Recover the amino acids of this structure.
């Protein structure tokens, strides 16, 4: 029986390798919204034994390899005070195929995001509201929140690139405001307009909110929301619940 099992596993491994090799020859680089839709589609396929976490990790590496071959993407990571944690989250989310480097300043990561294939991954820190700078950098937008697996803990970093996020059907939008007063009052004001808001980070009177759903920058509900200095800085898919 053990020999039969080993023989069957060898045959499966060979078939998997052939299929992965064929897929690599056909695949092109996907934008972030297409990649997440692919992950969701694969995760919804029937299976009997393989855990969803394994499926997500495997396909994430496959998609990262596709992206690295087509676009020569590279990661610049600002971890704030959390040491290597942000680097670990970046690797979990974007795979091991893309070169990655830690940078000393958030501004270095944002500058690298403007270069071809550049992705900046920045820790959320109350000591440095780097996300405010995106209001003056309309080309750079948040397109992913890390970790992207809900079981891996609360939101700790955001990924930024020179691209325009597309809706995936289950998204969150990131909105910055300098509105004074209690956070609850700001959230209540948005709720009266049908916008569900959750505080992500704040620093020196500046607040970063996550809004449930996908909102455009010119959405009238956000234009009339509290604050003199405010705006959308991007959007990301909701995390996988694995």
């Amino acid at each position: 029986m053990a020999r039969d099992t080993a023989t069957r596993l060898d045959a499966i491994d060979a078939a998997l390798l052939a299929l992965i090799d064929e897929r690599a020859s056909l695949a092109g680089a996907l934008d972030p919204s297409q990649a997440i839709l692919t992950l969701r589609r694969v995760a919804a396929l029937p299976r009997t034994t393989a855990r969803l976490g394994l499926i997500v990790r495997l396909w994430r590496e496959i998609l990262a390899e596709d992206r690295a071959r087509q676009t020569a993407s590279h990661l610049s990571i600002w971890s704030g005070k959390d040491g290597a944690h942000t680097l670990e989250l970046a690797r979990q989310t974007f795979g091991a195929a893309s070169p990655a480097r830690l940078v000393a300043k958030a501004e270095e990561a944002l500058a690298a995001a403007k270069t071809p294939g550049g992705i900046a991954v920045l820790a959320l820190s109350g000591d440095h509201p780097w996300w405010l700078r995106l209001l003056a950098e309309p080309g750079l937008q948040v397109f992913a929140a890390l970790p992207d697996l809900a079981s891996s803990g609360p939101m700790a970093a955001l990924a930024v690139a020179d691209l325009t996020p597309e809706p995936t059907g289950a998204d969150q939008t990131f909105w910055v405001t300098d509105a004074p007063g209690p956070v609850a009052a700001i959230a209540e004001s948005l709720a009266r307009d049908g916008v569900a808001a959750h505080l992500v980070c704040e620093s020196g009177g500046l607040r970063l909110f996550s809004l449930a759903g996908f909102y455009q920058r010119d959405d009238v509900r956000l234009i009339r929301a509290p604050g003199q200095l405010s705006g959308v800085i991007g959007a990301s898919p909701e995390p996988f619940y694995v």
Remarks:
- The beta strands are 74-78, 100-102, 118-123, 141-146, 157-161, 171-177, 197-203, 206-212, 230-237.
